[in-house]
Amino acid sequence: MLFDHLPEGPPVLGGAPFNVAWHLQGMGSQPILVSAVGDDDDGRRVLREMEEWGLGTEGVQTRSGHPTGRVEVTLDTEGPTFRIPPDQAWDHPEAAAAARALRGQPVGLVYHGTLALRSADARAALSAALHQTEAPVFIDVNLRDPWWSVAAVDEAVATATWVKLNRDELARLGGMPTGTAEACRAAAHAWARRRGIPNLIVTLGAEGALWLTEDGSVFTAAAPEVPVVDTVGAGDALSAVLCLGILEGWRPDVSLARATALAADVCRQRGAISGDLTLYERHTRRWARHGQGFDTGPRATPGLYVLSLSIHGLLRGRDIELGRDPDTGGQIGYVVDQARALAAHPAVERVVLVTRLVEDRRVDASYAEPEEVLVPGARIVRIPFGPRRYLRKERLWPHLDSLLDRLLRRIRGEGRVPDVIVGHYADAGYVGAQLGKLLGVPFVFTGHSLGRVKRERLLAAGQDEEALERRFNLSRRIEAEEQALEAAALVTASTRQEVDDQYQGYDHYQPGRMEVIPPGVDLERFSPPPLGWRNPPIRKVLRRFLRDPDRPMVLALARPDPRKNFSRLVQAYGETPELRDTANLVLIAGNREDIAEMPREARRVLTGILHLVDRYDLYGRVAYPKHHASEEVPDLYRLAARSRGVFVNPALTEPFGLTLLEAAASGLPLVATDDGGPRDILEACGNGVLVDPLDPAGMGEAILGVLRDRKQWGRYAKSGVRNVHRAFSWEAHARRWVDEVERVLAGARPALAPLTQNRIRDVDRMLVTDVDGTLVGDDEGTAALVEAVWEARPGVGFGLATGRSLDRALEVLREKGVPD
Question: pLDDT band at residue 402, thresholds of 50, 70 and 90?
Answer without folding.
Answer: confident
